Amino acid sequence: MSPSSLADSHQVAISPFNDQKPGTSGLRKSTKQFQTPHYLESFIEAILRVLPGVAGGTLILGGDGRYGNRSAIQVILRMAAAHGVARVITTTDGILSTPAASHLIRTTPGVVGGIILSASHNPGGPDGDFGVKLNGPNGGPAAESLTDAVYGATLSLDSYRTVAAPALDLSKPASHRLAGLAVEVVDGVSDYVSLMQRLFDFDRIADLLRSDFPIVFDALHAVTGPYATQIFEDLLGCPVGTVRNGVALEDFGGGHPDPNLTYARDLADLLLEGDAYRFGAACDGDGDRNMILGQRCFVNPSDSLAILTANAQLVPGYRDGLAGVARSMPTSAAADVVAARLNIDCFETPTGWKFFGNLLDAGRITLCGEESFGTGSNHVREKDGLWAVLFWLSILASKRCSVAELVSAHWASYGRHYYSRHDYEAIDSGKADALFDRLRGGLDRMAGQRFGTATIRLADEFSYCDPIDASVTSRQGLRILLEDGSRVIFRLSGTGTKGATLRLYLERYEPSGGNIDLDPQRALADMIQAADALADIHGTTGMDRPTVIT
Ligand code: VG1
Ligand code: CO
């Protein structure tokens, strides 16, 4: 092929894309759907048409290594060349965790955005899922206004632009030229690891790990494998094998790379049923989620955010204190109680990391988190799984206690938010919508009604007004607030790919001095029953128990 034909960009005609609006984080679909002709290209075309600064700008491109990752990178490079992008920075074998991508976007001059190829915690492989996440120049998930614009562009798409060019070698760091586009292949791990070394005292953590404090990390065959191996085994001196399932596989070894008690069962059993380890953790497919376990102790993610907030000053990167914290609405109010004692702001945002972006950029918060195993800080604009693990280890290195002791001491001091999330997955979308519409229609009449052992104070649909730019996001979950301070929330997932997923979130506060030693399902039993009576979950879905209980 002659150099001139390489540079020729051409238009490929397509039928309208007309997909539904991207969900909580980007476009997430079955791998098969992504393989249909022009499907990936259509979404990328829409992005390249509306993202400001594309012509002449720099893009960051990588993914979680799942099936389709590398071929999608080649497609996107050719399309970026056709759209006049000046430079794309991608990574060896396309491996780039979501938090590492955020860091790379933030630290590379001239970056107009990032494209992360991942369906996060959804399974991968030919029969699994694939996804495209778009991040803005601040390193965070694109704001609603940008994703709305991308969606708008997909509606009228009739062609896309690309160049004809052979595939580039992504197997090692190098610089390439693709028509007018400069492509740099860099190591996707090293910058991120250096950032962690700046935020945490690795020597101190290494001391802890040498002191009869064996730990285990499960990468679930997903993107954190290479990062975790470098951090734990190479730098912190843990024995080889500390990182389990550390090789990123295209199908995640057939597993579901979701760090919770159901899908990371092997790890959970090691910690909850055995005594070989003092600490265990896992991250999800793209490395932004974390599950923290101690010996015979599971740390609820809402509690994790509260505990990190309460102890942040023990960690070098946060020694100067916190500007504020934020949590997603369905996350328990455990962090609120800590924030009140620290006398810092605590914000409540809709589900999805993008809603933390403005608060972080404006310097109003330092830490933030979601009940869905997501914790992060102002060091990047994504939640960050390994960061959370290192944060926990830093606190433990300083306190020299067990995870269970730290958690119990926290509850004893601040009270305990009994918390659980029940997920009903892959239910018929029509039935889920009907259930939701019925509930929504009855909200007005709920105040004053009995709910389990308490009375409903207020029932509404959560709507958020961003404190920084005043943008309003409505329809973010149905809330039932009880007079004793308990909460029940119903939400439909925006990340599932099969039917609908109904999430039921339950929370009850036991103040300091009360009984903090109950099993959460028992502590919440009345509310669980009342929620089913109200929404008729079992009757409507035909499911007699949730798919996942956290
Ligand atoms: C879920 C979680 C949400 C999280 C989102 C993306 O969304 O509940 O808290 O931000 O996944 O996480 P939903 O709409 O299914 O409830 V990830 O790890 O995909 O980037
Ligand atoms: Co994820």
From TrEMBL:
A Gene Ontology cellular-component term: cytosol
Cofactor: Mg(2+)
Catalysed reaction, written as an equation: alpha-D-glucose 1-phosphate = alpha-D-glucose 6-phosphate
UniProt keyword list: Carbohydrate metabolism, Glucose metabolism, Isomerase, Magnesium, Metal-binding, Phosphoprotein
Gene Ontology annotations of biological process type: glucose metabolic process
Protein's UniProt keywords contain Phosphoprotein: yes
Cross-referenced Gene3D superfamilies: Alpha-D-Glucose-1,6-Bisphosphate, subunit A, domain 3, Alpha-D-phosphohexomutase, C-terminal domain
Any one GO MF annotation of this record: phosphoglucomutase activity
Domain of life: Bacteria
Stretch list, region Disordered: 1-32
Domain Alpha-D-phosphohexomutase alpha/beta/alpha: 20-159, 191-293, 302-414
InterPro entries given in the database record: A-D-PHexomutase_a/b/a-I (IPR005844), A-D-PHexomutase_a/b/a-I/II/III (IPR016055), A-D-PHexomutase_a/b/a-II (IPR005845), A-D-PHexomutase_a/b/a-III (IPR005846), A-D-PHexomutase_C_sf (IPR036900), A-D-PHexomutase_CS (IPR016066), Alpha-D-phosphohexomutase_SF (IPR005841), PGM (IPR045244)
Similarity field: Belongs to the phosphohexose mutase family.
Protein name per Swiss-Prot or TrEMBL: phosphoglucomutase (alpha-D-glucose-1,6-bisphosphate-dependent)
